[in-house]
Design a protein that fits this description.
Distance between the termini: 34 Å
Number of helices: 3
Radius of gyration: 16 Å
Strand content: 35-45%
Shape: globular
Length: 155
């Protein structure tokens, strides 16, 4: 009986760390001159309860939960996206984007090392010789949709 209670508590704890919003749906732009940035994180057991902050142009937008995504509509132009702020022992991962009107960009936060899917989807990844286990990568829409379509909104 005690084992059953411990298992139920562990399941409840782990599921509370996961994204719980509605399943992914592509957003429709409210202004045709804007663009949309999607940042997503497939569900993994590695650091499952870590929810790094996502910053857009150095302003916090949301926490990126395990198995979750966020979508932010922005004006076309240059933007800096950062995942993490040094919390949880992760240095911030940054990407500079130059977005056109109507464009949708898909950024994947990889934690726990790159998979063959990641390398094939993005192509040559300059990872250097470091033993890094987390990356912020821009994915082509046709590859990102495969993963993000199963995720839930980080709330």
């Amino acid at each position: 009986m005690i084992k059953r209670i411990i298992v139920l508590l562990a399941i409840a704890f782990l599921t509370s760390c996961a994204a719980s919003g509605p399943k992914f749906q592509e957003r429709t732009l409210t202004n045709s001159t804007n663009a949309i940035i999607y940042v997503y994180r497939p569900s993994k057991t590695v650091n499952c309860c870590v929810a790094p902050k996502v910053y857009l142009d150095q302003v916090a937008t949301a926490d990126l939960k395990n198995g979750g995504y966020i979508a932010v509509e922005v004006p076309a132009g240059k933007h800096e996206v950062t995942v993490g702020d040094g919390s949880y022992g992760f240095t911030p991962e940054k990407l500079m984007l130059s977005l056109s009107s109507g464009e949708s960009v898909y950024l994947k936060w990889v934690i726990g090392g790159l998979t063959q899917f990641d390398i094939m989807a993005v192509g040559n990844i300059a990872v250097g010789t470091s033993a890094r286990e987390y990356f912020l990568l821009q994915f082509p829409k046709e590859k990102a949709i495969i993963e993000i379509s199963e995720l839930k909104l980080s709330q």
